[in-house]
């Protein structure tokens, strides 16, 4: 039997970038410390050696400039892939992304397009405290004209990034710091994981768990534990948050009658609210046997202290606790 | 190696007289304490006792100490991620700083902020910022408030060379200029923003040239010469206090260590680092100057280093004995 080829999430992203750049000279990278440094998390390591400084562009610390440079280049025939070093700093790019990239096509009557991808790592768990641990994906979900992608595995990271770069719209591509070193099967040849296809990553009959990013492996770990107790979770990873493919979620809830949404971002105003609303407004409503619940980040900035940081966002234990309650009717 | 001559004594004669031996010794001691703090911080990190990241300013002590000592009681400080030195020089308590670094409840920010966000609000130290250039516009607000409250305070805001390429820097210098705000903008140019050398990030010789675009005075000083920084910041602060507005001071210095915990430093050579360490080390230079001027002798110089190490040992002991924050208090402090 041939060995299964494994890469880390970071390596999978890098392989995708390399293949895209080899295939299409319009593709280039732009961001802070992505050249000789290889990116703060090493995703672009080695690419400047292969493609040179003209296609792997180190910028000054200017996040509005990075976003704008991507937009302008995309409008005029290039396929830029920008990197924002930590998702937190995208707050400095917001005007360009929200008021320009997202709106250009519509405002100009559908005549222009902005085929760009902006990659950025979100999330806590590294002790980087309140200004380097944000999970702001839902800010973008709220903006018509943007697409939002959030892979949870190396396989999806590679295939979704390719789909994002080939897409003709501005795509916000949210990675997770704690996922970069996780390993999984990744085929060498280029492939696409289509945008806007939610995936059932584990089948089960008792409770539908919709999880994003780092919460997918945590939910799967919880599912393993619960299986020993006879509780079977069905875990769904939306992978693309916007435009959202909600059909598999609704189908699943019709089967299980119970739903829990898990994400790292703060609960209030978070993506979970959207999922809950979609379930409640769908035909799955008639099948519900329990309230639909969310498990998400506390309504606080991410603390520095390791223990506080750990307790600020959902962990395997909290998923276990919440899932048991819902399945046993102890809410 | 260290080319020290009577010229230097001549140049600093007046300043040495005015400051007097006690103040000069305090400055050198502070530089030692900062270095000892950071050396220990790195060690604790390597031992796995600290989780998170840190940015060391080893090699840049003269800028922190020169600037902080040029300010007066009641003035304000805003600084950045590489801020241990600034905080310490701004009367920071090593115990509470170390406790914050170790995430303890007794730290300046109750363990919520960590290395990158140490603030000492009671001492008008409005905190270190994790966002490059994040503190610069806030300085405009502080300057505005000083003006509106008609006090004689001044705001010192310290940021890196990298920050001068954020839009916030440009908006802020302009606002400070048109409103003649009492601010000293101190750009600590340590030659790199992470891996980006200043030669690649700027098309000008000195960052201080940018002041001219906003109608502000700008000057560049040797950031490894504590007295040069002290003089420049003192003058800028005096000017601000006279109601004449803001100044941009650029202090050229060098960071010896990597940008943060995980930096292979592929963007510079070991020789370059060694050159700065051997020829321009701020502590060695100031020590030699003070010895030459007869302010301290060799024994005192050694004692200062030992004293610094003892202060830091005590700070680590204090921190290790301190409690962690209580998980039950996790929701505390979000709102006033
Ligand atoms: C807005 C923003 N962009 C990027 C970063 C990541 N980052 C932190 S420090 C740093 C380099 C800063 O360089 P400089 O301003 O020269 O200060 P130094 O680290 O050299 O002291 C970078 C890129 C950040 N914290 N904030
Ligand atoms: Mg710098």
Can you give a write-up of this model?
The complex is a heterodimer of chains A (331) and B (336). Chain A has 331 residues and is of the alpha/beta class. Chain A has two domains: 6-185, Rossmann fold (3-Layer(aba) Sandwich), CATH 3.40.50.970; 199-328, Rossmann fold (3-Layer(aba) Sandwich), CATH 3.40.50. Helices cover 35% and strands 19% of the residues of chain A. Chain A has a seven-stranded mixed β-sheet, with helices on both faces. In chain A, strands 9-11-10-13-14 form a five-stranded mixed β-sheet, with helices on both faces. In chain A, helix 8 (215-228) packs across helix 12. Chain A is globular and about 60 Å long. Chain A starts with 5 loop residues before the first strand and ends with a helix. The model of chain A has no long low-confidence stretch (mean pLDDT 98). Chain B has 336 residues and is α/β, with parallel strands linked by helices. Chain B has a single domain (2-319), classed as Thiamin diphosphate (ThDP)-binding fold, Pyr/PP domains (Rossmann fold, 3-Layer(aba) Sandwich), CATH 3.40.50.970. Chain B is 48% helix and 11% strand. In chain B, the strands form two sheets. A six-stranded parallel β-sheet of chain B has the order 2-1-3-4-8-7, sandwiched between helices. In chain B, strand 7 (218-222), helix 9 and strand 8 form a beta-alpha-beta unit. In chain B, helix 1 (6-46) runs antiparallel to helix 11 (282-292). The longest helix of chain B is centred in the N-terminal third of the chain and has 41 residues, at 6-46. The chains are: A alpha/beta (331), B alpha/beta (336). Bound molecules: thiamine diphosphate and magnesium ion. Residues 160-162, 190, 192-193 of chain B line the site of magnesium ion (MG).
